[in-house]
Amino acid sequence: MLFNPNTYDPAHLDPESRRLLRALVAFFEQRGKKALVKSYIDRAWYSDFLEFSAKEGLFATFLTPSADAAPNKDKRWDTARNAALSEILGFYGLDYWYTWQVTVLGLGPVWQSANRIQRTRAAELLDEGHVMAFALSERSHGADIYATDMILTPAGDGGFTASGTKYYIGNGNVAGLVSVFGRRADVDGPAGYVFFAADSRHENYHLIKNVVNKQMYVSTFELTDYPVREEDVLHTGKAAFDAALNTVNVGKFNLCTAAIGICEHAMYEAVTHAHQRMLYGRPVTAFPHVRRELTDAYARLVAMKLFSDRAVDYFRSAGPDDRRYLLFNPMTKMKVTTEGEKVVDLMWDVIAAKGFEADTYFDKAAMDIRGLPKLEGTVHVNLALILKFMPNYLFDPATYEPVPTRHDPADDEFLFRQGPARGLGAIRFHDWRTAYDGAAGIANVARFREQADGFCALLRNHAPSEEQQKDLDFLLAVGHLFALIVYGQLILEQASLAGIGAELVDEIFAILVRDFSAYATELHGKTATTEEQAAWALAHVRRPVADPTRDDAVWQQVLALAGAYEMRD
Questions:
Q1: N or C end of the chain: which has fewer CB within 10 A?
Q2: Inter-residue contact 134 to 251 (CB < 8 Å)
Q3: Where is the Acyl-CoA dehydrogenase/oxidase C-terminal domain (predicted)?
Q4: Digit-coded pLDDT (tens) for 175-209
């Protein structure tokens, strides 16, 4: 289930994608662990990685839509292979992933635009090996795009001059194209929004500093009377607002695969260290609590991969009449990334002081895994978004054709014509119970299904009052319970498609049963919870079905990771 550079061969992808991904792995492996660790500690700009990417045409091939790629037939926007690349970059370090991630975001407003000049320019810049940037957030307002202080003043020739400061902008030090969000000085409200393309090399673009103490460059920059020609404008008015949100829908999906890659590399180190270390005449892995913690970490990591892999299929099969991906996207941003934190914490409890050592990958993973749930809003922002889908998801299913596994070399062009960023509450879903019914013979799936059905009964019989619906702290507890049901659905769908054994699925759902019980207990303790809701919460605390044979079978999968991979020096 885990990515292993020693055996990696993405045979499910087309030949050029396969070649590029294998070349990327070879680049990092040949570079070696000492160089990886040293550049991280020294906070050295990753010029060698960017030079490799430029030479191989990596970003150009993976990030140029087919419509802008002629005559190169290997270029396309393919979410399946983008996810594979994102996981590999996370495996070798968040900083390498980050420069890719913000390039994805910077291209979002461009590929959504009808501006042929800027589309052609972006494609040419990618061919030349440039990276991009997405300049939305500001220090005073964060990503509150309603309050931007990047002001565009009409220049009289159909263009503008732009002045203002942007903050927390990745690649802002070197980006060949920066997609900048601002507002017109002469037009009030949403009609005044503008997205435009800027160049970090322009004399009116002033780089201020790197705002993080990292190898990655997260800039703050200032535009001073920056000339914005009519041909530089990507979007205006409501379309600019929609482009911002739709870019996040496309680009922030990569957070989940970064978390997966980080956890995979850390797990090889942790299991190998624990199994080789002797205490009281026995390997550390002989202790029952260690076996439990590493088994939990492994099962949670597999669940992260299963959910994310299945979410890719919904992204690739999306269209105007199927927008289910808009629920699964905040799930990847929130649920998968927070699970990554739990995975690292479980392993850290096992390897203890080893997790602080400077020459390990784990030391970097323990720091970097914290950032991913916070790189797109915060957990509560995404949970609040997830709650918008809850009524239709749980109670009003629609009929859809089954979504197949999507590894075909197709261009995911719908992602750049998503349309207005509204109507989330009206999106319909297929019946979530179908996936659970298909796995009803697995003990802990059946037990979790009891809890899920109970949650539906809670909402029918003791729904949050109008006052409770204004209490975000209360709603977040409800949101965590709902998110577990969605999480379990896609895990089951992918487990079935991928032929995952029942023992591992049972182990995953034993964890979900425990997690549901923990969130129910949290709901019980909320000040705003009514007596009826509190009674429901305690009544739906469950113990997972125990099975020592299952536990041992999954433990053997964990133990097989010991010595399976170690990065060369």
A1: C
A2: yes
A3: 241-388
A4: 999 999 999 999 999 999 999 999 999 999 999 99
Instruction: Tell me which residue of 229, 247, 207 sits closest to 156, measured CA to CA.
Output: 229
Question: Mean pLDDT, the chain, as a whole number?
Answer: 95
Q: CA of 62: how far to CAs of 412, 425, 451, in Å?
A: 11, 33, 42
* Cβ pair 382, 332 in contact under 8 A: no
Q: How confident is the model at residue 143 (pLDDT cuts 50, 70, 90)?
A: low
Could you tell me if 361 and 269 are in contact, meaning their C-beta atoms sit under 8 angstroms apart? Answer: yes
Q: With CA atoms as reference, report the closest residue to 524 among 482, 458, 477.
A: 477
Which residue reads 């030090």 in tokens?
173
The 3 state secondary structure assigned to 365-431 is HHHHCCCHHHCCCCHHHHHHHHHCCHHHHHHCCCCCCCCCCCCCCCCCHHHHCCCCCCCHHHCCCCC
The CA distance from 513 to 544, in Å, is 6
Position 377 pLDDT exceeds 80: no
Write down the pTM of the prediction. Answer: 0.96
**pLDDT 10s digits, 53-108:** 999 999 999 999 999 998 899 999 999 999 999 999 999 999 999 999 999 999 99
How far CA 208 is from CA of 59, 165, 200, 217, 219, in Å, comes to: 27, 10, 12, 12, 7
User: What's the number of CA atoms in the CB half-sphere (13 Å) around residue 255?
Assistant: 33
Can you tell me the distance from the alpha carbon of 305 to that of 46, in angstroms, rounded to the nearest whole number? 27
Torsion of CA 471, 477, 482, 483, to 10 degrees: 110
Q: Measuring CA to CA, how many Å separate 546 from each of 487, 495, 539, 551?
A: 22, 21, 20, 8
Contacts of 438 (CB under 8 A, 6+ apart): 492, 496
Asked if residues 230 and 323 have their Cβ atoms less than 8 Å apart, the reply is no
Report the pLDDT averaged over residues 203-216.
Answer: 96
